Q: What sequence folds into this?
């Protein structure tokens, strides 16, 4: 008599579900729990913030692929193998595999080097959140999504403006660290948090329209 | 004859390699395909506006590229404050322009090329940290002209002035000379700080006769210079070594300084000189060597 988990299950839904859960449940739980636990421990930013989601998605992809591809040998003397799980479960596995493949590609794409369809520069205005006036006497460094510096330190001009050329072999740009003498900003500023018409000094500027210029309001401490 | 496929004849493999190299180059280094033209002349333009009453007709402009100075010049501004200068060739995409003028806080503005040869800075606002003016002239007693001017601090820190000078031409052109007369004259000055209740903070009395007049302060030596470029009017400049400080309490509060200057000055070889104090230029020099000037309107 074959072991229940190794036998093809096409008879009833309940045994199918139970055996499927027995086979892949721990893997699914481990993959999702790993992402939650790892993000809690390492945080959602920096290098681990990029690698953990990829690892989690890869784990779920492998599990889905296993659901679809796993086969068992009915008779040890015969070479013919049959799918381990029922057709319904295999369809779920195939669908999951497709979706998780897309998710893995998406997360890998987000973690690509800046040289591949990245940004050659970052430019914008920094101003005080309270007044909208430029934060004077400060310099900035662009950090990659991995949390590492990917530009040289750039002084803000009198308008609170900077232009920084980016390292192509870093991760994509993620945040900007501001070092102000009079305006202390403890946390790096998320690049995506920028907007338009936030800083008054930007209205005086006449930068080329071809350049993407952001504006960030920061709270000085 | 052996048949050779069309693509093989063209060298499909080498073409594919070339295409791959170009593709990778475009992906990895988008700017490498755009050579920098070292002969291109970049033009810098913009408009300068002051936030105070003091108008500027020229500013000092310094341009740095990659930390190296590539341009420094006093540029003339048009009536609306616009300017255009030629920088020559640039090798990077950004430049740092610093605008400065006496009495104004310097402004550092980033200029970006953006793939063209025109760099536009937009509107550059210069805010004064100290203003001199307005200047007014009145006829005083005993052959002295009274020149009043105001000094106003706009910053919350002390400003120290170390010298006050007044320059004017003689109203009537004198005779021509074979050699241009450049004479140094000696005057005496007495300074009197008036009480807070009066509108005038300080009276500087410059006496050509050497006496200290009726003022109680000890006399100071004042250098007077007479010069002339050609047969034109004689220029008289009196430089008084008078020191005063605008404190943080003086911020945004105009302080009035009064100069009492002789209407006529007896100059050896030239006779009596009549400086036209109604069109004089008053200059105050700070301890930072920065000078601010004003003239009667």
A:
């Amino acid at each position: 008599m074959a072991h229940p988990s190794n036998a093809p299950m096409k008879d009833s839904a309940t045994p199918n579900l139970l055996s499927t859960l027995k086979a892949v449940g721990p893997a699914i739980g481990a993959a999702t729990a790993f992402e939650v636990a790892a993000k809690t421990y390492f945080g959602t930013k920096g290098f681990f913030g990029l690698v953990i989601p990829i690892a989690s998605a890869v784990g779920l992809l492998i599990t889905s692929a296993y659901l679809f591809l796993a086969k068992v040998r009915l008779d040890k003397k015969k070479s013919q193998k049959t799918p381990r799980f029922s057709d319904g479960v295999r369809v779920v596995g195939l669908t999951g595999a497709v979706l998780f493949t897309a998710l893995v590609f998406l997360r890998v794409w987000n973690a690509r080097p800046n040289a591949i369809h990245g940004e050659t520069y970052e430019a914008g205005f920094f101003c005080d959140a309270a007044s909208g006036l430029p934060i004077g006497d400060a310099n900035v460094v662009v950090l990659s999504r991995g949390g590492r510096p990917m530009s040289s330190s750039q002084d803000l001009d009198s308008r609170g403006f900077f232009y920084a050329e980016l390292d192509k072999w870093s991760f994509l740009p993620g945040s900007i660290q501001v070092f102000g003498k009079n305006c202390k900003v403890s946390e790096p500023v998320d690049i995506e948090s920028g907007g338009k018409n936030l800083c008054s000094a930007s209205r005086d500027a006449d930068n080329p329209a071809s350049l993407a210029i952001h504006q960030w309001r920061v709270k000085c401490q | 004859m052996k048949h050779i496929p069309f693509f093989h004849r063209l060298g499909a493999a080498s073409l594919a390699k070339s295409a791959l190299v170009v593709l990778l180059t475009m992906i990895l280094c988008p700017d490498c395909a755009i050579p920098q033209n070292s002969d291109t002349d970049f033009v810098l333009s913009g408009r300068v506006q002051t936030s105070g009453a003091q108008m500027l007709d020229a500013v000092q402009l310094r341009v740095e590229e990659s930390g190296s100075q590539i341009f420094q010049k006093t540029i003339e501004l048009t009536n609306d404050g616009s300017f255009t200068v030629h920088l020559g060739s640039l090798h990077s995409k950004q430049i740092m322009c610093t605008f400065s003028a006496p009495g104004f806080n310097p402004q550092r503005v980033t200029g970006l090329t953006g793939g063209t040869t025109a760099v536009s800075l937009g509107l550059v606002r210069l805010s004064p940290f100290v203003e001199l003016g307005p200047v007014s002239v009145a006829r005083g007693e005993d052959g002295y002209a009274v020149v009043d001017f105001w000094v106003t601090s706009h910053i919350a820190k002390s400003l120290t002035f170390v010298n006050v000078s007044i320059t004017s031409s003689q109203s009537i052109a004198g005779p021509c000379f074979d050699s241009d007369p450049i004479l140094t004259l000696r005057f005496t000055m007495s300074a009197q700080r008036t009480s807070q209740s009066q509108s005038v903070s300080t009276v500087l009395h410059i006496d050509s006769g050497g006496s200290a007049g009726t003022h109680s302060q000890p006399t100071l030596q004042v250098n007077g210079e007479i010069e002339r470029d050609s047969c034109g009017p004689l220029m008289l400049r009196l430089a008084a070594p008078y020191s005063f400080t605008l404190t943080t309490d003086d911020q945004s509060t105009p302080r009035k300084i009064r100069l009492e200057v002789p209407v006529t000055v007896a100059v050896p070889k030239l006779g009596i000189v009549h400086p036209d104090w109604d069109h004089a230029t008053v200059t105050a020099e700070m301890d930072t060597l920065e000078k601010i000037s004003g003239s009667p309107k």
